[in-house]
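Saturday, quiet lab. Running sequence design on the structure tokens for the scaffold JK sent over.
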């Protein structure tokens, strides 16, 4: 199971790296391995996530600490992943920093949310009605990770979702790696589209 999950997460990491979504060692990814007890594979902290090595991921438990002896450090943002796995049935969490998701988080930051409407791509989130709206909450980029994780947890209620961290990046989650990647790509499409539209409207 663990090897299969490793391969699944490595494949997602490879695809996101091909999109150049891991600039400057940013980003972190995880995939659930077991429910009871909760364990998940998470990216090791501070690595260049474009590289593929045998030390890309480590297994952690429900507290975000390594579940077995290792010299690797879990992602600095593992506590955000912990909130999702502890509160929902999500199976995969993806976090990337892109210029466009940062711009959108800053532009709409004071409103605490960005609402996407009149866009075919919101169907990726299961919203099929003609007047549907897709809302992504935006939280402050608290440097103290437990504080960030607490603010983040206030927006984690469902097995799938997305939260923007202001001038930092986006974290999305889904029932499995396929769904999480679909949501991430749809989020990035919407952010790219809104940035271009805002520029054209000026
Ligand atoms: C220059 S990236 C700053 C830390 C961060 O926001 C991130 O996503 C990567 O941190 P990690 O510990 O997961 O490598
Ligand atoms: Zn980050």
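Result came back. Writing it out in full:
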């Amino acid at each position: 199971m663990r090897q299969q999950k490793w391969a699944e997460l490595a494949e997602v990491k490879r695809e996101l790296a091909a999109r150049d979504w891991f600039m400057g060692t940013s980003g972190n990814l995880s995939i659930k391995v077991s429910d009871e007890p909760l364990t998940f594979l998470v990216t090791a902290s501070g690595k260049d996530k474009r590289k593929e090595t045998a030390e890309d991921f480590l297994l952690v438990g429900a507290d975000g600490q390594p579940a077995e002896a290792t010299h690797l450090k879990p992602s600095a943002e593992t506590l955000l992943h912990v909130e999702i796995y502890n509160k929902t049935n999500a199976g995969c969490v993806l976090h990337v920093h892109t210029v466009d998701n940062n711009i959108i988080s800053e532009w709409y930051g004071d409103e605490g949310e960005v609402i996407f409407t009149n866009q075919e791509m919101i169907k990726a989130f299961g919203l099929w009605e003609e007047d549907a709206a897709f809302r992504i909450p935006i939280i402050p980029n608290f440097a103290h990770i437990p504080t960030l994780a607490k603010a983040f947890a206030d927006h984690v209620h469902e097995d799938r979702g997305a939260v923007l961290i202001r001038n930092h990046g986006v974290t999305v989650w889904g029932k499995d790696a396929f769904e999480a990647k679909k949501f991430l790509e749809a989020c990035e499409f919407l952010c790219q589209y809104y940035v271009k539209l805002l520029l054209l409207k000026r």
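Notes for JK: The chain has a mean pLDDT of 98. The helical segments are 2-18, 78-87, 99-107, 145-153, 177-201. Ask whether to fix the surface positions before the next round.
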